[in-house]
Automatic annotation (TrEMBL):
Domain ACT-like: 328-399, 422-493
Keyword field contains Lyase: yes
Protein name, UniProt field: L-threonine dehydratase
Top-level taxon of origin: Bacteria
Family, similarity comment: Belongs to the serine/threonine dehydratase family.
Amino acid sequence: MLDYLQRILNARVYDVAIESPLDLAAKLSTRLGNQVWLKREDMQPVHSFKLRGAYNKMARLSKEELARGVVCSSAGNHAQGVALSARELGCQAHIVMPVTTPELKSDAVLALGGNVILHGDSYSEAYTHAMELQERHQYVFVHPFDDPDVIAGQGTIGMEILRQHQRPIHAVFVAIGGGGLISGVASYVKAVRPDIKVIGVQMVDSDAMIQSTQAGYPIELKEVGLFSDGTAVKMVGKETLRLTSALVDDFVKVDTDAVCAAIKDAFEETRSILEPSGAMSIAGMKQYVAEHDIHDEVLVAITCGANMNFDRLRFVAERADVGDEREALFAVTIPEERGSFKLLCETMGQRSVTEFSYRLGDEREAHVLVGLAIRDRSEVPEISESLSAKGFVALDLVDDELAKQHLRYMVGGRSGASGNERLYRFEFPERPGALMRFLSQMHPSWNISLFHYRNQGADYGRILVGIQVPDEDLAVFREFIGTLGYRCTDETDNPVYDRFLR
Ligand SMILES: Cc1ncc(COP(=O)(O)O)c(C=O)c1O
């Protein structure tokens, strides 16, 4: 720890980084009943903390090493940190990015003078190519997290927080990808004020560090969720695992909806738009406060990045209220008789309706999709009760992906010709051409009877498919689904399907 304390105190970051502000988040403080501070790393010159570690590593290279040039692989913030540092130090940076990298990100690196090399479909392929280039040209490899100088550079954030807030702090919340940021921050905090808790935040579908600390060695994940791209790491580093295991007090896992809600919280507080990884600390903090019933404490969340693709905002805005449990979604069954639709509207009272879809059903009953703005989830049972008091049956759909992702955007309704239909929800990494690739893999001998896809600017494409499969073909069909290699959920027995689509 002493070694890291010295490294952090001696780190060279301020040639390129600013001492970012530690801002009081007044609205979040009131809502959470704690004093919440945001460490604004989104305000760094390249809109993330990554330049601290990259610069500290590169500023320590010899003249001869700098003359050879550096290489790294990254699809995002590390690339910009390395390119900016190289420009400052007058060296050439070769940055290998997957061919699927959005132009916005490769353009940012080009604008900083980096030599962009597009290679491979994934981060791992880009990484392998960067290692080959290192061997071939004797470049210096700048690791995104598993390097003591990179870790020490990120640790300067911990140093600044303790200088900026000298009164008691209960906990600091930190997003984890490969673990460089939390290793640096925890090394400083635990050396100087060990009473402060350091809490790591990971995505539920990208939790390599949590799994690795439990196992005691780096676990390699087969797949990682891409929504929070800055933290989508399949395998953490040896050194970051060692430091995190020794120093981090606790971990929280958050989901996409919670991160969207946190992006909205940060926007309301600061008018900045954080990228998903940048808002994970806030999502983790909210969850931790609720789970541990914490009041009147001082909490710090590091808002570590704001390189958000603009076209993702639609998805984020749509999911934010659901994630914050500010929107309830119901399927309400009403008798198909005169006045019952009006009665349903009256039962909603003064509540703000976010969505209302009704279509005359059969002669007996109709199903209505109703979205309502709520303060929190505790209101949901109350609403269900007021509906059933009037003779309506309400199905709570807040956790139903079929309803949230597809049903509310679909046209077509029910079909009398949907015999033998099975309903599946698929997810696949969203890339140019991915939808066509998916379609071309569908078996030609089964009839597609329902299809819904909507590009939401998220990293996963979501498709709902109805396929008519005769009973005798079911076993072969299930085998075929297994060979597609996409995440798949059978929704055939979902009551939403029965009520609105079949
Ligand atoms: C915005 C953002 N947050 C968090 C992380 C994760 O940092 P680390 O890999 O050091 O854990 C990254 C990594 O690039 C990032 O860009």
